[in-house]
Specification:
The complex is a heterodimer of chains A (111) and B (112).
Chain A: E1 3-7, E2 10-14, E3 19-26, E4 30-38, E5 45-50, E6 56-59, E7 62-66, E8 70-75, E9 84-92, E10 99-101, E11 105-110
Parallel strand pairs in A: 2-11
Antiparallel strand pairs in A: 1-3, 3-8, 4-5, 4-9, 6-7, 7-8, 9-10, 9-11
Chain B: E1 5-7, E2 10-13, E3 19-24, E4 31-38, E5 42-50, E6 53-57, E7 64-68, E8 74-78, E9 87-94, E10 102-103, E11 107-111
Parallel strand pairs in B: 2-11
Antiparallel strand pairs in B: 1-3, 3-8, 4-5, 4-9, 5-6, 7-8, 9-10, 9-11
Classes of the chains: A mainly beta (111), B mainly beta (112).
C-alpha cells in the first residue's frame, strides 16, 4: 500500500529562519508528487508538481526538490504569511490510481 | 479563470439523514475527485469521476456515493449519516490523472 510520511509534524521558525520540510514515500510506480499549502478552514492550494528524481521547482521563498524516495520543501527567509499546513501527495500508477496525501507539516512563522 | 466552487459551505444534519454536496470544477477540467478531511485521518480519497464515470474509489462504505454530469459538475451523497461523518468534504478538479488538482473551499458537514 502506498505510504506518504511528512516530517516534522509541526515546525515553529523565527521570521527569516530558513528550513526544510520532508516528505518521504513508499509507493509502486510514482507518476508525480504534489505539494500543497492549506490555511485553516480552506481547501489546499496547489504549489508544485514534481515528476522525476532530480527535478526542482521554485516559487517565491519556496523550493521543492525530488529524489527517488523523498521530497523536500525548502523555505528561505520565511515571513509570517508563510504560516500554514504544507501537504504533499503522491500519484502512482499501480492498481487503483489515486492521490495519496501525507498528514502535513504545520508551519508557524513567528514575527 | 474561476476556481472550483462547492455548495453549500456549511451544513448541519442529524444522524440518519442523508446529504448531497455539489461541486463545480474549473472550466475545461473533466476529472473531479472528492476527499474527506478530518483532524485524525487527514485527507482521504473518496472517489474520482471522469466523463461521467467513476474511475477510482477509495475505502469508504457504500453510504458514500457520487455522480458526475455531462457539464463535469459533480455531486456527492451520503446516506444514513453517522456522527463520524462530520468532516470537511473537499472537491478537486484537474485536467486528467497525474495533473495537479485544484481544490474548492470545501463543505463543512456537522452531524449531530
Amino acid at each position: 500500500e502506498d505510504q506518504v510520511t511528512q516530517s516534522p509534524e509541526a515546525l515553529r521558525l523565527q521570521e527569516g529562519e530558513s528550513s526544510s520540510l520532508n516528505c518521504s514515500y513508499t509507493v509502486s510506480g510514482l507518476r508525480g508528487l504534489f505539494w500543497y499549502r492549506q490555511d485553516p478552514g480552506k481547501g489546499p492550494e496547489f504549489l508544485f508538481t514534481l515528476y522525476s528524481a532530480g527535478e526542482e521547482k521554485e516559487k517565491e521563498r519556496l523550493k521543492a526538490t525530488l529524489t527517488k524516495k523523498e521530497s523536500f520543501l525548502h523555505i528561505t527567509a520565511p515571513k509570517p504569511e508563510d504560516s500554514a499546513t504544507y501537504l504533499c501527495a503522491v500519484w502512482t500508477n499501480f492498481g487503483n490510481e489515486k492521490l495519496t496525501f501525507g498528514t502535513g507539516t504545520r508551519l508557524t512563522i513567528i514575527p | 479563470k474561476a476556481g472550483v466552487t462547492q455548495t453549500p459551505r456549511y451544513l448541519i444534519k442529524t444522524r440518519g439523514q442523508q446529504v448531497t454536496l455539489s461541486c463545480s470544477p474549473i472550466s475545461g477540467h473533466r476529472s473531479v475527485s472528492w476527499y474527506q478531511q478530518t483532524p485524525g485521518q487527514g485527507l482521504q480519497f473518496l472517489f474520482e469521476y471522469f466523463s461521467e464515470t467513476q474511475r477510482n474509489k477509495g475505502n469508504f462504505p457504500g453510504r458514500f456515493s457520487g455522480r458526475q454530469f455531462s457539464n463535469s459538475r459533480s455531486e456527492m451523497n451520503v446516506s444514513t449519516l453517522e456522527l463520524g461523518d462530520s468532516a470537511l468534504y473537499l472537491c478537486a478538479s484537474s485536467f486528467d490523472r497525474a495533473y495537479e488538482q485544484y481544490f474548492g473551499p470545501g463543505t463543512r458537514l456537522t452531524v449531530t
